Q: What sequence folds into this?
């Protein structure tokens, strides 16, 4: 199947006004292939309505969801209500959907309830998106997963399962001078993301920070409790937009990924931010991140096998920072990210869909 000139219903677990993640980027990049994309927001108290977005050919749909207890109904009734809602969506949009691209398996999880004319894709990028993964995967024409853990789960229910890595979305940096912040040290380490995450290993991070007072540690993102951001060499940059983040990555010397990987190896096998980190070219000091072990073996990422090893690894990288941030290594990292742009991922998906069409015709 050529992903061009199609009407696509993209079902997202995050609303359009959420900070842009993979679902939003796929929507935008699909329109660059002359597709028309309708981005279905998660259910909320809202009348059924279609709205324009700031991007040509991307529209959002608001709806108030299904009747309560839908998943407890017999399958024939579930499929009836899902098809009924699908037809309502087509009517309000004034078209027929060629593709249903489901990133959310908490709604429309009986994909075989939808018309045969539609191609149904189950695309799982988070392990916690497992509400009805068995039904969504088994009723899809094709499944994509962003980690081997996810594809292993999907493969139990569907033979057409493929690994598609997180996409890289390069943005133009917005000037953000890290030197404008009160840190006086020459080397600056940055972590960007949800500072409230239960997966962040603050115990290890604080050990690293205390043992390296000659280095500035900068944190960007949402935070509720700032108790972990106390120290003479710790600085909080607030929440940054995508362009500001790109500038911060470019100006930092080291990017940090320090999660409770010993406790949650599956959940942390492929964090969303990793591809953006890699695209900056700067060295990443990471706890174990399964999907990028091959880059660690190539010495493009510094990765600990156990969290207890992280402080020692950190010191080694800092001592060899010129080697880790050499031109050759930075170029190799950026090349890897550019091989995983959303356009490249769509090209890979297109080839897979064409193969499945052949298989289905036999």
A:
């Amino acid at each position: 199947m050529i992903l061009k000139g199609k009407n696509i219903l993209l079902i997202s677990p995050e609303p359009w006004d959420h900070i842009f993640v993979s679902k939003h980027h796929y929507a935008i990049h699909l329109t660059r292939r002359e597709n028309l994309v309708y981005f279905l927001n998660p259910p909320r108290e809202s009348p059924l309505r279609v709205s324009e977005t700031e991007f040509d050919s991307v529209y959002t749909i608001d709806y108030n969801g299904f009747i309560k207890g839908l998943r407890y109904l017999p399958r024939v009734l579930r499929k009836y209500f899902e098809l009924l809602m699908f037809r309502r969506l087509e009517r309000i949009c004034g078209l027929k959907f060629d593709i249903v691209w489901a990133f959310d398996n908490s709604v429309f999880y009986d994909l075989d309830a939808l018309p045969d004319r539609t191609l149904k894709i189950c695309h799982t990028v988070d392990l916690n998106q497992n509400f009805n993964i068995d039904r969504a995967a088994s009723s899809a024409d094709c499944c994509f997963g962003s980690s081997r853990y996810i594809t292993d789960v999907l493969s139990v229910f569907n033979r057409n399962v493929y690994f598609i890595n997180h996409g890289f979305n390069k943005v133009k940096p917005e000037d953000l001078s890290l030197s404008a912040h009160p840190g006086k040290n020459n080397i600056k380490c940055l972590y960007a993301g949800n500072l409230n995450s239960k997966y962040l290993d603050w115990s290890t991070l604080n050990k690293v920070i205390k043992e390296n007072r000659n280095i500035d540690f900068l944190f960007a993102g949402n935070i509720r409790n700032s108790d972990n951001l106390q120290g003479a060499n710790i600085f909080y940059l607030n929440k940054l937009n995508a362009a500001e983040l790109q500038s911060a990555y470019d100006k930092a010397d080291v990017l940090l990924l320090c999660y409770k990987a010993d406790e949650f190896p599956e959940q942390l096998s492929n964090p969303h931010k990793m591809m953006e980190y890699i695209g900056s070219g700067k060295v990443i000091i990471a706890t174990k991140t399964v999907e990028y072990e091959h880059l660690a073996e190539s010495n493009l990422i510094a990765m600990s096998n156990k969290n207890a090893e992280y402080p020692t690894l950190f010191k080694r990288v800092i001592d060899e920072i010129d080697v880790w941030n050499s031109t050759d290594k930075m170029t190799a990292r950026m090349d890897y990210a550019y091989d995983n742009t959303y356009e490249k991922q769509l090209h890979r998906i297109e080839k897979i869909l064409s193969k499945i069409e052949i298989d289905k015709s036999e």
Remarks:
- DSSP finds twelve helices and 14 strands in the chain.
- The mean pLDDT is 93.
- Residues 8 and 285 are 39 Å apart (CA to CA).
